[in-house]
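[SOLVED] Need 3D model of a two-part complex

Original post:
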Amino acid sequence: MMCRVDEAQDGDGEPDVDATDAVFTSLLEDSTEELYEQAPCGYLSTMMDGTIAKINATLLDWLGLERSHVVGRMRFTDLLTVGGKLYHETHFAPMLQMKGEINGIALDIKAAHGRRMPVLVTSKVKTSENGEPLLIRTTVFDASDRRAYENELLRGRKAAEEARRQAEADRTRLQEALAVLQQSLLPATLPTVPGLKAASYYHTASPDRLGGDFYDLFPLGTGQWAFFLGDVCGKGPQAAAVTSLTRYTLRAAALHDGDPITVLTTLNTVLHERYTSGDPRYCTAIFGVLHPRDNHVDVHLASGGHPSALIQRADGTADYLPTPGGILIGILPNPEFTAARTQLHPGDTLLLYTDGLTEARIGPDRALYGEDALRTFTTAQPIAGPQALITALTGLLAGFGEGLDDDTALLALGVPAPLPTPFSIPASDDLT
Amino acid sequence: MSPLTITTRDAVTGPIVEIAGDLDYATAPELRKVVDHLTLADGQLLVLDLANLGFCDSSGITVLLAARNLATEQGADISLAAVPDNTLRILRIVGLDRVFTLHPHATAATTSNSPTR
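Solution:
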């Protein structure tokens, strides 16, 4: 503004150099003393023992101290907080002694009104011409804003880490809860049935998603045993709720009247009433009763829309026990279910499975595994009882890899083959 | 995997919903949404045309049943047209081949008076 006025007055367009210098000089208050005292940072000179010899007004102002109380009476370390003193003792002073200077060290000073003030300290030792250390010159920068910014960054990072830790903990807890819930839908261990061996396997397609497959084996209290295996439509908590309802309905219905068709009809009534509108909820299941006899076990079972049970016979054959015409449980008010009977003799094993096994897509062309392949596989297995068959099938499922994208439940029930008699020992010797 | 496309058109007998592509856990909700928005008059026939249906899993079966419930609630009938072999096999296992009226193709569904049960 001023220049423009001058230019206008002179009229020749040349700036008035003398006038500008005068303005700068008045602004700069060309005094080193003033510059030292009122600098935007603290200045400090100490003797080699730390005694403060000179200090500027800026730093005194920060400290809230009188010059007369400081100069010749206090040491640099007296200005520091306890933590600052410690750091000065262990790092700052030794570094300074070794290198003759130290740059931008973060320390806290005891500021006015009992506050703690974060500062950045730079010190340099002044030496005589022959290298004798004379005094230490120190600058002190106010680092409050910078420290606050750093703290903010640190807080942000801690918050993010905490959120991540929390999310991981939540995920772990959820998976544990899901696993517990899933386990509650299956028997912890299969009961011991006289004259019968039982084995089971459950493959979970995803730890995050509750499966809808279920099975059970339990006593009916009349020397008979009931078993079931099935598959509730859908996945997740809703499916798990239906599975729970299904499992306990089947158990209660079986104790009331163990006839397989009656049991499935009761379950149908419960599911149909419960899910009559909105999302259809249904299941497929095979329910059966085992009646152990002297030398075999009678099996009476019924199916509602479930793949047929497979029987591995002691003679090395394997055949399905067809239950055609049985319909999904829960979709119709008066459905048909189909019953079948068979006998398990020593060495025979009844296999129940969910369609995760037979509907698996295998190989590069994702071909359907299917019921024929399952029968062929089972026929090829040695007659070695339910556990051996389940173990072989577990290996088969593992071999499906990616092709097995559904939950799969397996339950095998078998009558043990008679123990080898001493006669068989020479027979095996002959083989060698 | 082929994406699911759903096309709805009207025949004199009622709506025909053409379902093409794979119907599984991921895509079944799309069909469910379409089915939920269908309005059927008493005595109408809902035809689900499955001629171009690829894979259909239990989630797909569930939507077919939901469609059946919806049709029944509104006094309408439902039939499935041109069910592919793979899906027919599953329908047979679970007994649904006797719950749904099946037709060889959509035209047969809308003209036939005697369903091929």
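Edit: Chain A has a mean pLDDT of 87.
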